[in-house]
Amino acid sequence: MNYSQAVEWVHHLPRIAGHCGVENTGRLLEKLGHPEKNLRFVHVAGTNGKGSTTVMLASVLKKAGYKVGCNISPYVLDFRERFLLNGEMASEEVVADCLTQVREAIEALQKEGWESIVEFDAVTTAALLWYAKEQCDIVCLETGLGGRLDSTNAVQNTLVACITAIGKDHTELLGDTYEKIAYEKCGILKNHCAAIVYPVQPQEAMDEITLRTQKAECSKVVVPELEDFYFYRGLPFENRINYGGYDLIVPFPGRHQAYNAAVVVEAAIALSEKGLDVPDEAIEAGIRKAKFPARIEVLSHQPLIILDGAHNVDGAKALADTLETANVRNLTAVVGILNGKGADQMLRILSPYIRKLYTVAPDSPRALTAQQLAEQARKFYADVTPVSTVKQALQMAQQEMPDGLLVCGSLYLASEARKVFVR
Hints:
Elements: H1 3-11, H2 21-31, E1 41-45, H3 50-63, E2 68-71, E3 84-85, E4 88-89, H4 92-111, H5 119-133, E5 138-142, E6 158-163, H6 171-174, H7 178-185, E7 194-197, H8 203-215, E8 220-222, E9 229-231, E10 240-243, E11 246-249, H9 255-273, H10 280-289, E12 297-301, E13 304-307, H11 313-325, E14 331-335, H12 343-350, E15 354-359, H13 370-377, E16 384-386, H14 390-398, E17 405-408, H15 411-421
Parallel strand pairs: 1-5, 1-6, 2-5, 6-7, 7-8, 13-17, 14-15, 14-17, 15-16
Antiparallel strand pairs: 2-3, 3-4, 9-10, 10-11, 12-13
């Protein structure tokens, strides 16, 4: 397959499996000779912040001189964002070659009666295959959904596991309590790995995390202490902190991202204790240089244009906290939210910062229609307009945004909108 054929093929694979991802990916990796056994991993799970944590840590390890694979999901602009090596996307030829090999393995499994492999299993396997071919020193691996049964959990050589913020999302699959969700996320813990935990967790989640780290006999468990943070005064959306003696410029706004950066610092220290050399200078420079689109991304200051992929209630809270800290009000907003993500709560949380709202349906079969979202929004907003396309909504919003524009509610929406603003 060439690149376009490979991408078309993988996107047409099913999204829902008869078997869990860890089984499917395990079967695929076995067919391919277990390339993952030649790799070492930092595995990152959580409800919010796992992508930011993964890319910051990968940037730190690159600055330390290592060959670093970074596997994140979903992508925002380019499918090849799922295949990062030292911060650069794989070539189209490389992706096509890896997906072709995975397709052959899937077809061999299908002949044996194994029919349940889905898109995420195939993409994860292809990335692991490439990282093994490139002989990466370390791979920073973000889970897709949950942890225990996730495709990425087919790997074994986990040096450090990071558990980011736990919230209530995907409750139909992961459980409806913090305890159940934390249990699933902690499924990535391997015996004697180090565990680094986001510092602000619901107590019910933290109790379960503590139990699971004990059962895994983790070599160390670190939860950053809130008294170890000092937040410098700065410009709006600037995020400069000192954490435990590390002076950090966090490239993503919001206190939650400062906490994610502390998880990265502790993960880097844990890796040093496991034999990797990660100097303090690499930690500070790596965090400063990290890039990740659509995480409260300020595309322009004059006029103010903010793009955020916040896709659930906790994400909306983090965005609202950031807007509050920056003293930003009266925004014009384009918002699109998927069904089941707590649209009512998200809209209520953001209402103090938005004066005019355009609702749209992101490019997803799970999206609320613009009209459905508008009906919910009218409980909290006086000025709501449903619009049939994202492009049209952005054009309308840009004509009436005296105090700035906010685009948020879904990474699918962020992906569409970013193509308009960043060329």
